[in-house]
């Protein structure tokens, strides 16, 4: 299963991809990931490639091959659509992160148009206000755990509890409770 | 049971298992986590680790340990190898006793670098063997092997990784970390003292070692062929897996030779592969290092094989490879019609540009703003340097006119000053970069009386690469913090000012004072990076008072400031730096109590 995680530097995307990869290894699967570390982490567009159960393969998901696009930000979902395979599913957090260039009026950000475009052109797209759920859990910083919780409803090759446990080992104990809540809220938000 | 390791962690693990005693490094993306990992696990295993002042010093420290027979490692990014080049080039002639491995991370793309230079080419220039892992697991295995090879050849060995190995994760079966072997000790011998006469002899030896290395590498497990007919691919580094996947996608089987040891290229496996081929495509990122050697070998052996790659334009020298790029090259090489793999979507609405920029609360924002305000009306050039503060070039600050390499802000400014005497020169340099490469040009400016303002942006960390320590900090144990102001004083700078860049009024006064100085002045803007110290306070906009003039956004470009419904709001990324409150014409921004 190939999962492309897209978002903005600072949203906790590396943690999300590590949690998925660790859960896969614990479950006895092979795994490859590629992360954006470095300059782009400062408020820039970032992606993590997570490839579960692959071997004889590189860490980068080819275009048109991702089974899931997990987008923590709507414009970043749109920017990375080319990775999604035909019939692939997308999970999109609808709360935009407004780039400074947009605030300065130098680069338009038509959020509503982007969300409409995603809904109209991606039959497998699920949009949710993950930021609201993260706030409900206790902090906007738990957005990544809300999204992981949502993702756990998709047929991942390991149980949701394992994914949560692996994510928590990457977080300080002081924030475990709110992140547990965030994961749970994300799970329930998408239950069918 | 395998463990999940990032490529850089796998390299560190390999080095620990190989019994290293000493490891030294200077931070640089994508190499930094090698040392971070060694610092975490090293002390317990009896390994001495340090962030050195720069890469040259790191290599010399590792070499010193290797002179005494200990195994040692120095890690750096590709441009760090340029800084260390003086030591590395001579070290090849002198050789080592204990295994010395230089891990150098290249950055095709580039993602976080000024160049896409190819360390395999550097290895060839320095006449040092280089290993080129295709994945984290192989990086782990190659690192262990590199120490043995280094001792066999008595030469430093380079392990060259790229971003997609260093910053990729994979399950890796690791072994136990054995106890450190005893250090044989330094034996005094003229062999360690390079003189022209010794260099002349050692050059002959070094050239002979190339052939020994070729033989050793031919016997290594890192080059392997799979035969599937007379059309083949030779691939090195992560490209090997891009080829494997691309062939699968195209539904093809071709002969495939994987090269893990690109220099010196082992002849036997390549010759026997070429002997069975009519046509080969060579797939490697960056420079045609394997390709040039294969062409040379085929020519010398009079092999009638067609060799394609970069020289005939199938693959570029620039940028990073991936499955799609390699599949397209393979399709062209095989004259196939490639099917479009990407689903066709209608054109999307315009997407906002999202380049990297200063975080909310970054003290550099205050420093650049203060200097720009203070220099208003004057003819000024702002030279910049390497670090987070390079982002000062972005709008709306636009406060950086040059950026070249580590330490170049001070040198470039002095050259500009010589030909533009009417222009005020301000050089911005970070704290870590100041120690790394700022001292020689600072001494130069004092010695030659250049009226230069040097602004040291001291955020008490090496921020861009992940918050490593530097000589200005008493980080751990019995380290001594070297004070930037004392260093400047010792270099003979007379005007030295220290100010908090987020205390805007004081910062602007300090900037004006520095700009008014006649000789070289050093202005230290000191405030810790908010990514390290989480602020206790936040600011908010008083909606009644806000006139929505957007001065805060237009002047500062802070990501926490967002226009919304005719007002400005401050989002939760605010760290309470207070800059926006300092410049708000309507006094509408207040601290959250």
Provide an overview of this structure.
- The complex is a heterodimer of chains A (192) and B (593).
- Chain A has a single domain, classed as Pyruvate-ferredoxin Oxidoreductase, domain 3, CATH 3.40.920.10.
- Chain A has eight helices and six strands; from the N terminus they run βαβββαβααβαααα.
- Chain A has helices at 13-26, 74-79, 100-103, 111-121, 130-137, 143-151, 160-169, 176-189, and strands at 2-8, 31-34, 45-52, 66-71, 84-93, 125-128.
- Chain A has a six-stranded mixed beta sheet, with helices on both faces.
- In chain A, strand 4 (66-71), helix 2 (74-79) and strand 5 form a beta-alpha-beta unit.
- In chain A, helix 6 packs across helix 8 (176-189).
- The radius of gyration of chain A is 16 Å and the shape is globular.
- The mean pLDDT of chain A is 95.
- Chain B has 593 residues and is α/β, with parallel strands linked by helices.
- Chain B folds into four domains: 3-217, Rossmann fold (3-Layer(aba) Sandwich), CATH 3.40.50; 224-333, Rossmann fold (3-Layer(aba) Sandwich), CATH 3.40.50; 363-526, 3-Layer(aba) Sandwich (Rossmann fold); 539-591, Alpha-Beta Plaits, CATH 3.30.70.20.
- Helix content of chain B is 38%, strand content 17%.
- In chain B, strands 3-2-4-5-7-6 form a six-stranded parallel beta sheet, with helices on both faces.
- At the A-B interface, helix 1, strand 2, helix 2, strand 5 and helix 3 of A face strand 1, strand 8, helix 9, helix 12 and strand 20 of B.
- Strand 2 of chain A pairs antiparallel with strand 8 (168-172) of chain B, so a sheet runs across the interface.
């Amino acid at each position: 299963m190939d999962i492309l995680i897209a978002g903005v530097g600072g949203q906790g995307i590396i943690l999300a991809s590590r949690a998925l990869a660790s859960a896969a290894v614990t479950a006895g699967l092979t795994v490859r990931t590629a992360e954006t570390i470095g300059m782009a982490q400062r408020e820039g567009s970032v992606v993590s490639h997570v490839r579960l159960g692959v071997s004889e393969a590189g860490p980068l998901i080819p275009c048109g091959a991702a089974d899931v696009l997990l987008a923590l930000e709507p414009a970043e979902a749109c920017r990375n659509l080319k990775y999604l395979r035909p019939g692939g599913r997308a999970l999109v957090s609808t709360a935009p992160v407004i780039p400074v260039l947009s605030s300065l009026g130098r680069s338009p950000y038509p959020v509503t148009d982007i969300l409409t475009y995603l809904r109209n052109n991606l039959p497998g797209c699920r949009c949710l206000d993950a930021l609201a759920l993260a706030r409900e859990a206790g902090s906007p910083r738990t957005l990544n755990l809300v999204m992981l919780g949502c993702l756990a409803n998709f047929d991942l090759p390991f149980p949701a509890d394992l994914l949560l446990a692996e994510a928590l080992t990457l977080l300080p104990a002081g924030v475990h409770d709110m992140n547990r809540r965030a994961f749970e809220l994300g799970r329930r938000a998408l239950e069918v | 049971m395998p463990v999940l390791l990032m490529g850089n962690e796998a390299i560190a693990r390999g080095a620990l298992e190989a019994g290293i005693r000493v490891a030294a490094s200077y931070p640089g993306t994508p190499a930094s986590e090698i040392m971070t990992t060694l610092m975490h696990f090293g002390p317990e295993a009896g390994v001495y680790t340090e962030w050195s002042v720069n890469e040259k010093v790191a290599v010399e420290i590792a070499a010193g340990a290797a002179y005494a027979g200990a195994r040692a490692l120095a890690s750096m990014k590709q441009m760090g190898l340029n800084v260390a080049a003086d030591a590395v080039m001579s070290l090849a002639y002198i050789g080592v006793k204990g295994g010395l491995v230089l891990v150098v991370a290249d950055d095709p793309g580039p993602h976080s670098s000024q160049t896409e230079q190819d360390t395999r080419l550097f290895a060839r220039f320095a006449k040092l063997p280089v290993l080129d892992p295709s994945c984290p697991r192989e990086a782990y295995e190659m690192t262990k092997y590199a120490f043995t090879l280094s001792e066999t050849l008595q030469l430093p060995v380079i392990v060259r990784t790229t971003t997609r190995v260093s910053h990729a994760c994979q399950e890796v079966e690791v072994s136990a970390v054995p106890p450190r072997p005893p250090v044989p000790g330094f034996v005094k011998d003229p062999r360690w003292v390079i003189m022209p006469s010794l260099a002349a002899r050692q050059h002959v030896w070094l050239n002979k070692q190339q052939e020994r290395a070729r033989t050793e590498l031919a016997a290594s497990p890192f080059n392997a062929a799979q035969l599937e007919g007379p059309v083949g691919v030779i691939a090195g580094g992560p490209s090997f897996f891009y080829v494997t996947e691309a062939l699968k996608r195209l539904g093809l089987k071709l002969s495939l030779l994987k090269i893990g040891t690109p220099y010196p290229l082992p002849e036997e496996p390549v010759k026997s592969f070429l002997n069975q081929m009519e046509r080969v495509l060579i797939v490697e990122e960056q420079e045609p290092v394997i390709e040039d050697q294969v062409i040379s070998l085929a020519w010398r052996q009079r092999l009638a094989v067609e060799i394609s790659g970069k020289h005939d334009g199938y693959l570029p020298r620039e940028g990073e490879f991936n499955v799609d790029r390699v599949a397209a090259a393979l399709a062209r090489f095989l004259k196939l019609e490639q099917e479009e793999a990407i689903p066709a979507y209608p054109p999307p609405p315009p997407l906002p540009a999202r380049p990297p920029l200063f975080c909310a609360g970054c003290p550099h924002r205050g420093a650049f703003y203060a200097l720009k305000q203070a220099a208003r009306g004057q003819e000024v050039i702002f030279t910049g340097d390497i670090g987070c503060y390079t982002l000062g070039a972005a709008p709306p600050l636009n406060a950086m006119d040059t950026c070249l390499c580590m330490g170049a802000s001070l040198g470039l400014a002095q050259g500009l000053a010589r030909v533009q005497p009417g222009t005020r020169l301000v050089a911005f340099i970070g704290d870590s970069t100041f120690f790394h490469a700022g001292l020689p040009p600072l001494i130069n400016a004092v010695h030659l009386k250049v009226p230069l303002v040097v602004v040291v942006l001291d955020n008490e960390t090496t921020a861009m690469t992940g918050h490593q320590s530097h000589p200005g900090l008493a980080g751990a144990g019995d380290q001594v913090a070297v004070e930037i102001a004392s260093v400047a004083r010792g270099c003979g700078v007379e005007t030295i000012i220290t100010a908090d860049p987020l205390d805007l009024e004081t910062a602007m006064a300090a900037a004006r004072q520095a700009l008014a100085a006649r000789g070289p002045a050093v202005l230290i803007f000191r405030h810790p990076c908010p990514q390290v110290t989480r602020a206790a306070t936040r600011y908010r906009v008083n909606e009644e008072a806000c006139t929505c003039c957007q001065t805060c956004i237009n002047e500062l470009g802070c990501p926490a400031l967002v226009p919304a419904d005719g007002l400005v709001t401050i989002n939760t990324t605010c760290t309470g730096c207070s800059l926006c409150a300092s410049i708000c014409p309507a006094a509408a921004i207040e601290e959250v109590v």
